Amino acid sequence: MNAAQLDRFDRFFDENFAAIVCDVALNDPSGGVLRTRAGFASAYRFWSKVEDDGDPVAWVRRVITADRRGARGRSVGQPVDASGRRPSVDLGAERRRVVALARRQRAVARVVIGLSALVALGGELFVAHR
User: Fold this and answer.
1) Exposed, middle or buried: residue 64 (CB in 10 Å: 0-12, 13-18, 19+)?
2) H helices of the chain, where?
3) Distance CA 37, CA 9 (A)
4) Are 80 and 34 in contact (CB under 8 A)?
5) How many Å apart are CA 67 and CA 64, to the nearest integer?
6) CA-to-CA distance for 41 and 76, rounded, in angstroms?
7) Rounded CA separation 101/22 (Å)
8) Distance CA 28, CA 60 (A)
9) How far is it, in rounded angstroms, from Cα 18 to Cα 81?
10) pTM attached to this predicted model
11) Contact of 68 with 30, CB cutoff 8 Å
12) pLDDT tens across 80-116, in order?
């Protein structure tokens, strides 16, 4: 990601993270923060595509919805303020968490792809030597 793209992501993050985490936490108090981080991490990883799509907020919400569907019964995360007040969000700390999560996801994806390629190659070699 170049500096201009990073600036645009940072602006998007600053403008939308707190509102989305509050919205998601209303329906999912125990996992809303983690799901929102995952949505923004996905947007960070694929920012050029997300930006070209024209609606980064919709991208984040789709990832959150998919994560909610895929993790039924999972109860993790930070609870929100029960009084209905907007929880305070340290955007700098959250941005660091989101970027770290995106980098971990990218590293895991590379390992999985590499291992898949090795398994396929091993299968080809096995079949070739039979």
Assistant:
1) buried
2) 3-27, 32-45, 47-53, 56-70, 91-128
3) 14
4) no
5) 5
6) 18
7) 20
8) 15
9) 13
10) 0.66
11) no
12) 455 555 556 677 888 888 888 888 888 888 888 888 9
